[in-house]
């Protein structure tokens, strides 16, 4: 079969499965998630042996240790996948909810019913556990899924796919509810993102390069997560203890995450007081510091920041620091250099927090809280498929709701329209 | 200036204006809408004389009378535009609303704030009053607008643009809040739809050809309105009086609208009783009928329907009719041949209406109501910018809310994240 025929078949099967999934009951979907967990449990030896092939190939290809670590499936990670499935089963089912049903002057009632998007294509890189994360969220929200994992995780993903299919079928759901592509041909990605007749939305998970490439070429809407160049602004009226705790937490809780602070903005009136303490604490943690001239006048430890630094998501123990003369300068800086992901203000001034919240154009705006909270779990969604930096459809952490749409439903009793 | 520099300038100006519009107060935006209404009133002679140039050019180019009629600006239409501005001013402002603000286990409060999308590009065909419709809805929802009208309406649109700018500036809003392109170069459209740095969403308004072309080439999200191939399904348990009223209203209220019924599906058990009456009534209205073999056995008036007919949005006094053996066949037919716009069931059976509502994959699903109700005004939105046949972002009639996004806001009091 040609690649094109194969992809067409996958697409048709997904579309057909999506019709059945859309009307599957919550009970059936949860049964499938539990059956998937059982199937993973039973497939444990096979998952580990297939993963070993990927690990071997990866070593032979000379993948670096970080990548190899992400690729590894061991008992703990399999436990994590099984736990994840059970967690998604425990989430409330968003599908079918009817909201805002109101009587209108014509006598009809009009409301909105939450429905699945249909078919979701997920393109991801090395971590094989994404296969389960993504499949479970899509299934719970009544969507069919087409998964395309990285070629390095090929054998692991195929083994996971087998287990997933067993679980889905055991619960009486369509076998094509979750399909993992069995090709590593790069052209398959190009086809997947240009089949609007079969695929309703693409979720790329991976590095910025992957996401930009896919967004550029996609002929299907993309829920994309680009970079997280997050800021904390410490106002002149900040409580400096809170400011210290938040600035430390936002930067040093974890370095490689998208909600980590990459740029610290400090009001000139607070800088003399708080910056030396922060600089010392960052130094202790081994965080490299670069900054504007004013900040360097306060601490000689701070290196020189280039224009490029303000745009940069380091994802590393490195921070850029800028002194600003007022909140407006901070907001302008954030909206210009930031990536519209997550930005925080620390201030005790009511009016300023109110204005900051309104004017900062980011998917999450924090007031007196660490940027680290920008996360589907922390927001109470139970799980997330990513954090959208788009404004269209879903913005910010995307949980089950982001994988749904709302259609209008109208109830009449023989109503017709006059004019 | 080259076209590229011109478009870049327009884009930059729109982006800058959008920042100011996002924080404009409701009062300011409403003042601008009223000032735009005044400016249109004052520009009445100029609007009519500029429109006369377009009409003359149109006649010289041999535009047909329907197109010329849509192009015409007379006193009644100017009144309509002025009335429309005042109506949009009277709508509640969606911007700034914070919803679902809840305390989470970590102690933070998390909610969603409704914000403008940013810059909206509108591409439309001949009717110059769209300039005002679109500009007013975008402005009220805090968005900057770039409008590109049809070349036939060039002089009319420029005259409207002048009045709009006067109103906007009079209210102290940025002069580039609403920009109408002053070029008829087709390449400008291509540029407008591929400037994601300046344009957040494109709304094409016009024929299917225009919309398909733009969707295909856009590098920016598109809120699109493709065709409305709408169905009414008359169940075996329908109240036949209601069914008759709805089937007549859905087809004959207006023929050229997207929410008109184009295909009638009748349960075999109801067909003998209701079809002859409907056929007679349609004939009286001059509606051409084509149908399946079974329907033709009931009425010889019905011509033969081709496979193509089931896919066709006639937008004309023509209807395709199919007899189905049960509701499932109707739903399968609708989901296959329909355009996911608006579809209705007429039935007194509770379980069937419940299933139909869930399983029909359309932007509006009607129960015992005419498809004619699918409309932003009828749904209580006050106005609409179009009807989206997409599932992503906005689905169905798009009012002010469809021109907004929601960002997360988090309130803490020095909160940091532990793990």
Largest sheet of chain A: 7 strands, parallel
Please state the structural category of chain A: alpha/beta
Helix content of chain A: 40-55%
Mean of the pLDDT scores of chain A?
95
Strand content of chain A: 15-25%
- The name of the CATH superfamily of the largest domain in chain A reads Aldehyde Dehydrogenase, Chain A, domain 1
Count the domains of chain A. Answer: 2
Radius of gyration of chain A: 24 Å
Count the DSSP helices of chain A: 15
Q: Give the oligomeric state of the chains in this entry, treating copies of one chain as homo and distinct chains as hetero.
A: homodimer
| Poorly predicted spans of chain A | none
CATH class of the largest domain in chain A: Alpha Beta
Instruction: Find the biggest chain interface.
Output: A-B, 69 and 68 residues
- Count of extended strands of chain A: 16
Fold topology:
The structure is a homodimer of 419-residue chains.
Chain A: H1 3-22, H2 26-42, H3 44-61, H4 65-71, H5 75-90, E1 98-103, E2 109-116, E3 119-124, H6 130-140, E4 144-148, H7 154-170, E5 178-180, H8 187-192, E6 201-205, H9 208-217, E7 230-234, H10 240-252, E8 261-267, H11 268-285, E9 288-291, H12 293-298, E10 303-304, H13 307-311, E11 318-324, H14 327-337, E12 342-346, H15 350-359, E13 364-369, E14 386-388, E15 396-398, E16 404-415
Parallel strand pairs in A: 3-4, 3-6, 4-5, 7-8, 7-12, 8-11, 9-10, 9-11, 12-13
Antiparallel strand pairs in A: 1-2, 2-16, 14-15
Helix pairs in contact in A: 2-5, 2-7, 3-7, 5-6, 10-11
InterPro entries (chains A, B): Ald_DH/histidinol_DH (IPR016161), Ald_DH_C (IPR016163), Ald_DH_N (IPR016162), Aldehyde_DH_dom (IPR015590), G-glutamylP_reductase_CS (IPR020593), Glu-5-SA_DH (IPR012134), GPR_dom (IPR000965)
Main location (chains A, B): cytoplasm
Subcellular location (chains A, B): Cytoplasm
């Amino acid at each position: 079969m040609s690649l094109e025929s194969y992809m067409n078949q996958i697409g048709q099967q997904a579309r057909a499965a999506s019709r059945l999934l859309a009307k599957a009951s919550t009970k059936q979907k949860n049964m499938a998630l539990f059956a998937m967990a059982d199937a993973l449990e039973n497939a444990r030896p096979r998952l580990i042996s297939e993963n070993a092939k990927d690990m071997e190939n990866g070593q032979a290809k000379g993948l670096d240790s970080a990548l190899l670590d992400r690729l590894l499936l061991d008992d703990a990670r399999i436990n994590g996948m099984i736990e994840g499935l059970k967690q998604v089963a425990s989430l409330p089912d968003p599908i079918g909810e009817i909201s805002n049903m109101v009587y209108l002057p014509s006598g009809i009632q009009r409301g909105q019913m939450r429905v699945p998007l249909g078919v979701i294509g997920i393109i991801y890189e090395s971590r094989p556990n994404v296969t389960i994360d993504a499949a479970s969220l899509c299934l719970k929200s009544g969507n069919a899924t087409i998964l395309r994992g990285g070629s390095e995780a090929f054998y692991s993903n195929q083994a996971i796919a087998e287990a997933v299919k067993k679980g889905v079928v055991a619960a009486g759901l369509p076998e094509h509810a979750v399909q993992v592509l069995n090709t590593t041909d790069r052209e398959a990605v190009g086809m997947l993102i240009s089949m609007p007749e079969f695929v309703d939305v693409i979720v790329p998970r991976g590095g910025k390069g992957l996401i930009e490439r896919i967004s550029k070429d996609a002929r299907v809407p993309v829920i994309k997560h680009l970079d997280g160049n997050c800021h904390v602004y410490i106002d002149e009226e900040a409580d400096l203890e809170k400011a210290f705790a938040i600035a430390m937490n936002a930067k040093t809780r974890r370095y490689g995450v998208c909600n980590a602070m990459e740029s610290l903005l400090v009001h000139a009136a607070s800088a003399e007081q708080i910056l030396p303490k922060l600089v010392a604490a960052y130094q202790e943690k081994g965080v490299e510091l670069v900054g504007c001239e004013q900040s360097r006048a306060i601490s000689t430890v701070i290196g020189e920041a280039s224009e490029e630094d303000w745009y940069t998501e380091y994802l590393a123990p490195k921070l850029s620091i800028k002194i600003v003369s007022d909140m407006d300068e901070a907001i302008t800086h954030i909206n210009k250099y930031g990536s519209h992901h997550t930005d925080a203000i620390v201030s005790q001034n009511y009016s300023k927090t109110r204005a900051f919240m309104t004017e900062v154009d980011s998917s999450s705006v924090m007031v007196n809280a660490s940027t680290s909270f920008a996360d589907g779990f922390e927001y109470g969604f139970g799980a997330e498929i990513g954090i959208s930096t788009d404004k269209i459809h879903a913005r910010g952490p995307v949980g089950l709701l982001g994988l749904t749409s709302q259609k209008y439903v109208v109830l009449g009793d023989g109503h017709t329209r006059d004019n």
